[in-house]
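Worked Example 4.2. Consider the chain below.
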Amino acid sequence: MMNSTAPIHLALTTKYVQNLLNAKARQLMRRPEFQMATPADIVHDLIKHILEQVDNYDPARSAPNTFITCVVETTVAMLVRSRKRHKRAIGYQSISLERAQFNTEQRNTVLGEIISECDLRRRCGGDIHDGQRNAELSADVATAIESLTARQQKIASGLISGSEVSVAREMNISRRQLRKEIMFIRRHFKRLELEKYQENRTGRI
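Applying the procedure from the previous section yields the following structure tokens:
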């Protein structure tokens, strides 16, 4: 009898998953944080994280490919955040030694319209490096949101100004379905160490 994790191990050998892993590796290779990595290194890291999560797979809730895709998207966001944090620490030390100022290039993100200066200042703390930290937080939050499903993104955005009742009504889903998605979003932000931002921003998730 096949155990519950066997389908995941089998799925890792399929063309679909191999294409997914290679596509994500190419995507990350285009980012400056991964310029020293190789596609093989990135694929190895992604597979490692999939295997670490394999015991959480429930065949009654999702297909193997769906589970793997979810883990890969979350892992990509975590890897990006980890590399940026490391690069940020090195950059901060260099600039401090040179007594120079940060020169931040503003970025437009899909969440630009719902991230206000006050929110970012409250999350980062008010100091002379607010501009740099705000831009970094915006990118981190955008990456986290982009790795959610389209429905989860709509829920997260809807709860910025609406209630659970209004969001459920607008999306034509039950309160139970909504709460299930909210729990997933909360865990997602917690894994990426962004739960305090989400709590401050909505007061609901």
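The chain has ten helices and no strands. The two ends are 40 Å apart (CA to CA). Compare this with Example 4.1 before moving on.
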